């Protein structure tokens, strides 16, 4: 029995020692990552505007400036809302998801929403705005979609 234990310990020791040995050309530590920061969404939701609500049309426009994607939106929605946004990226598809984290009430007003997406490498992107979801009672729907290209030569 002692022989079996001694042989087993010797085998484990030699296996561990061989595994720890560094072969030529193999780094002794993991290489440093030079990953670019993930895309970042910043946004501003204007105050509820009850004037001219009858003439307000929901619309979303997309543009670029200084290697950022800019989103401008007019939307009719409930007066007591607090609209928050998050960004989801699936390759070159960027989805902005709008959520009402406030309340739902019976009055309607217009909101001017502005957002920008930064830290993107140059390239072509499809941008979608989904909103406005509220808890389990109102699912997000596609409010706007556009193709934008960030030019080469500008840093993210």
Describe the structure.
The protein starts with a helix and ends in a 6-residue tail after the last strand. It contains one helix and eight strands; from the N terminus they run H-E-E-E-E-E-E-E-E. The chain has 156 residues and is mainly beta. It has one domain.
Entry summary:
The protein is mainly beta and 156 residues long. It has one helix spanning 2-20, and strands at 40-45, 59-65, 68-78, 83-90, 93-100, 108-118, 123-133, 141-150. The longest helix has 19 residues, at 2-20.
Tell me the series of helices and strands, N- to C-terminal. Answer: HEEEEEEEE
Per the principal axes of the C-alpha atoms, what is the gross shape? elongated
**What is the residue-averaged pLDDT?**
79
Provide the number of structural domains: 1
Helix content: 10-25%
Write out the strand line-up for the largest beta sheet, numbering strands in chain order: 1-6-3-2
Largest sheet: 4 strands, antiparallel
Number of strands: 8
Total count of helical runs of at least 4 residues: 1
C-alpha-based Rg, rounded: 27 Å
Strand content: over 45%
Structural category is mainly beta
N→C terminal distance: 66 Å
Low-confidence stretches: 1-34
């Amino acid at each position: 029995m002692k022989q079996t234990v001694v042989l087993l310990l010797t085998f484990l020791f030699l296996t561990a020692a061989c595994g720890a040995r560094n072969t030529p050309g193999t780094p002794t530590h993991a290489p440093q990552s030079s990953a670019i920061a993930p895309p970042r969404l910043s946004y501003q939701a204007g105050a509820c505007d009850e004037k001219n609500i009858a003439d307000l049309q929901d619309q979303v426009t997309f543009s670029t400036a200084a290697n950022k994607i800019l989103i401008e939106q007019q939307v009719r929605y409930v007066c007591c809302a607090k609209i928050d946004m998050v960004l989801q990226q699936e390759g070159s598809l960027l989805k902005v998801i709008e959520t009402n984290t406030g309340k739902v009430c019976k009055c309607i007003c217009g909101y001017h929403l502005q957002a920008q997406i930064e830290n993107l490498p140059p390239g072509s992107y499809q941008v979608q705005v989904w909103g406005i979801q509220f808890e389990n009672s109102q699912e997000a729907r596609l409010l706007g979609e556009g193709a934008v290209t960030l030019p080469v030569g500008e840093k993210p």
